[in-house]
Amino acid sequence: MSHWTFICASSELLPGEMRTGFDEITEAPIVVFNLDGELYALEDQCTHEDFELSAGVFNADEGSVECVLHGARFDVRDGRALCAPAYTAATRFPVKRENDGIWARDDRED
After folding, report:
1. Reduced to 3 states, what is the DSSP secondary structure of residue 14?
2. Domain map (residue ranges) of the chain
3. 74 Cβ partners below 8 Å, 6+ apart?
4. What is the pLDDT of residue 25?
5. Omega before 85 cis (within 30°)?
6. Most buried by CB count within 10 Å: which residue of 33, 58, 80, 107?
């Protein structure tokens, strides 16, 4: 798969912020995090229960996002679950800066 989903303009995602997008082809929700200038993208879905990670709190000091539903936390760099009730990592997606924009893609096989 070579399609990329436009998330936002580069200027709209500052360090410590997150933005969401939606892959129209795979129907995957995507959340992109700016952690000290580095970009990371995860599927915008808690692995404990189907709920948007982007509704939670992005802690830029520790590089984690916390699901507001039950408090599961994930490392935004690699998606790994940091505490119960989540035990499965969130899916990580490729992300890039190109043409003054931020792009991500669901690279899982169909």
Report:
1. coil
2. 5-104
3. 42, 46, 47, 53, 64, 65, 67, 80, 81, 82, 86, 89, 90
4. 92
5. yes
6. 33
Pair 62, 77: CB distance under 8 Å? no
CA distance 36 to 22: 24
Give the whole-angstrom CA distance, residue 31 versus residue 33. Answer: 7
Chain-centroid distance, C-alpha 14: 15
Q: State the amino acid at position 101 in one-letter form.
A: G
Which are the contacts of 109, defined by CB distance < 8 A and separation ≥ 6? none
Rounded to whole angstroms, the Cα distance separating 72 from 49 reads 10
Cα gap 33→15, rounded to integer Å: 8
**Residue 64, CA atoms < 13 Å, CB-side half-sphere:** 14
CATH number of 5-104: 2.102.10.10
Which segments of the chain have a pLDDT < 70?
A: 1, 110
